[in-house]
Design a protein that fits this description.
Helix content is about 55%, strand content about 10%. By secondary structure, the protein is mainly α. The longest helix is centred in the middle third of the chain and has 25 residues.
Length: about 140
């Protein structure tokens, strides 16, 4: 995911709540600036501690990790996280970080609730994932094999 990875390479890799795609991640992200190759169990344990109670981990200078209960939910989260990061980086490139206008806090919270509350995330994530899955199957792609 190039945009999420690029955001993680900035001095301040915070995901700003400037778009509806960003707001679904309100309070759900953690950041790790101590990236080491995850070749030892200790590094995985350390990353788990950094992740804590969050389900999105920006491993700065490396990439992202998404924790989800299903593959379709993980796919949906990665998709919208990448879109949120893309929007932020494009806005920053157009006018600079200081020119970004974040959404009002009440709108951020309401947008997050609408996107991930109850079974909403699971229901729409499944539709999103299987629409892509069926597209690639129709093309006889081996992308999922």
């Amino acid at each position: 995911t190039p945009y999420a990875t690029a955001l993680g390479c900035l001095e301040d890799p915070s995901l700003l709540m400037l778009h509806q795609n960003s707001c679904r991640f309100l309070g759900r992200c953690a950041w790790d600036n101590g990236y080491q190759p995850a070749t030892e169990i200790e590094e995985g344990e350390r990353l788990g501690r950094v992740l804590g109670d969050k389900d999105i981990l920006f491993m700065c200078h490396h990439g992202t990790l998404v924790v989800a209960e299903t593959i379709h939910a993980a796919f949906d989260e990665v998709y919208y996280l990448e879109r949120a990061c893309m929007t932020q980086l494009l806005a920053m490139g157009a006018a600079g970080r200081n020119a970004i206008k974040e959404m009002p806090v009440d709108v951020q919270e309401a947008t997050k609730a609408a996107a991930v509350a109850g079974d909403t995330l699971d229901k729409y994530a499944a539709k999103h994932f299987y629409a892509k899955w069926n597209k690639y199957r129709a093309l006889q792609s081996d992308v999922f094999q």
